[in-house]
Design brief:
alpha/beta; 2 domains; seven-stranded mixed beta sheet; six-stranded mixed beta sheet; Trna Endonuclease, Chain: A, domain 1; elongated; Rossmann fold; 16 strands
Length: 324
């Protein structure tokens, strides 16, 4: 039996995407219910689902609070797709939209349907009908899809193989790098073994090191990127040092091998909410010691700060961070 996935479009696209990419609910067709003010969000979701070979239909609603009108649209969908398995996700939209859709399904007398709610706090799907069941999330949203769902186009700058090679070199020699066998400034890092230069390069070294630490846990290259440009709906460009998805959340790491830590943290705090909404996690890694920073101005920022003192165990810190 073919499956149709129905979702209510809202400002937060992640709960709309999660069930569609899970094997348990993977659909043949997606129906997006949009209100006039959510046309852009619906169009972006349509393009994302089509990338994954799903047939997508957008159905327009007059507004988000006309209960009977919304219920009528849902009832027509139920009637038209008789013989299909229908999966309704009530996580998005307004409460009235969700209630209208839920009511239409309960009154339909259909045998084969599911009603789902996405519980992002507990990382699980709650199936409400036909019987209560719970399903753990599958880690299924990649970086490109995640960013585009918020209107950002991603363009990668760095060669993955090159980044991995240098990142591993720094990681394997971190005892020399972070035990005063090094010369560090904002442009050049040089560290030695038996008076021989092991690595010498520019300020990108911290990004490569952070990328390699993350890659120990994130193996899918579609879910881990380094040095990418992102273009906003207003055509403004920004650069992300390290960005990855885990448990369907977006993680962004900004690396500062020299100055600019305070301004970088504030910029990251603002940009993070724009590119990842409620499901973004932010980290700034500095190559400076904590004692060198006046961090009083960092209070109130939703950014985890890592200083030079902890760089040697950065992989452990990242594992703890993504597991929280």
């Amino acid at each position: 039996m073919k499956r149709i996935y129905i979702c209510l479009v809202s400002d937060q696209p992640v709960p709309n995407m999660i069930p569609a990419f899970m094997k348990k609910f993977y659909p043949d067709k997606v129906i997006l219910l949009q209100t006039p003010e959510k046309k852009n969000q619906a169009q972006r979701l349509k393009e994302i689902f089509e990338r994954h070979n799903m047939d997508v239909l957008i159905k327009s609603l007059e507004n988000s609070i006309a209960f009977d009108c919304i219920k009528n649209v849902i009832e027509k969908i139920i009637y038209y797709y008789n013989g299909y398995e229908l999966v309704l996700n009530i996580s998005g939209g307004t409460k009235i939209m969700a209630l209208a859709a839920y009511t239409a399904f309960l009154k339909s007398q259909r045998i084969k349907y599911r009603i789902l709610y996405v519980n992002t706090a507990e990382k699980m799907i709650l199936q409400i009908k036909p019987k209560i069941e719970m399903y753990d999330f599958e880690d299924s949203i990649n970086v490109e899809d995640y960013l585009y769902s918020y209107g950002y186009i991603a363009k990668s700058n760095a060669s993955t193989n090159y980044v991995k090679l240098l990142g591993k070199l720094i990681y394997d020699n971190r005892n020399y790098l972070f035990n005063n066998n090094s010369e560090i400034n904002s442009k050049i890092i040089t560290f030695f073994e038996n008076n021989n230069i092991v690595y010498e390069g520019g300020g990108f070294w911290l990004e490569y090191y952070a990328y390699y630490c993350v890659s120990k846990y994130i193996k899918d290259e579609a879910r881990l990127k380094c040095n990418i440009n992102i273009i906003s709906p207003n055509l403004l460009e920004n650069e992300l040092d390290v960005v990855f998805t885990y448990n369907n959340k977006l993680f962004v790491i900004e690396c500062k091998s020299g100055c600019g830590m305070i301004s970088g943290s504030k910029k990251l705090n603002v940009l993070g909410k724009q590119i990842g909404g409620d499901f973004v996690r932010l980290m700034l890694i500095s190559a400076r010691n904590k004692s060198e920073i006046d961090y009083s101005s960092l209070y109130g920022l939703d950014v985890k700060i890592i200083y030079f003192d902890d760089l040697k165990r950065l992989d452990e810190i990242i594992l703890q961070w993504i597991s929280e």
